[in-house]
């Protein structure tokens, strides 16, 4: 095989590898983007849940009412 043909094959192989690498990078970026969206949603939900927890000192939730006051009288 002539020297120029070997170089051409190697160049084609490198171009194919570069193409697959670009595709992989694009897919990984999409995964990271989706994970960040999910993390953002989970943080929002966590903050909402924290606001629903009773305050350690007053027993009232952050919204200003005590969830125990919502229990039916037979409790």
Describe the structure.
There is one protein chain. This protein is mostly helical. It has one helix spanning 3-52. The protein is built from one helix and no strands.
Q: Which short descriptors sum up this protein?
A:
mainly alpha, 0% strand, 75 residues
Shape: rod-shaped
Report the strand count.
Answer: 0
Please give the count of helices: 1
Radius of gyration: 29 Å
- Stretches where pLDDT is under 50 for at least 5 consecutive residues are none
The H-and-E topology, N to C, reads as: H
Percent of residues in beta strands?
Answer: under 5%
What layout of secondary structure does this protein have?
Elements: H1 3-52
Task: Write a short abstract of this structure.
The chain has 75 residues and is mostly helical. The protein has one helix at residues 3-52.
């Amino acid at each position: 095989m002539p020297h120029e043909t070997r170089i051409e094959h190697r160049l084609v192989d490198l171009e194919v590898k570069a193409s697959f690498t670009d595709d992989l990078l694009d897919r990984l970026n999409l995964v990271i983007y989706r994970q960040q969206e999910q993390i953002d949603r989970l943080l929002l939900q966590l903050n909402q849940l924290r606001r629903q927890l009773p305050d350690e000192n007053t027993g009232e939730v952050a919204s200003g009412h005590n969830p125990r006051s919502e229990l039916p009288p037979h409790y």
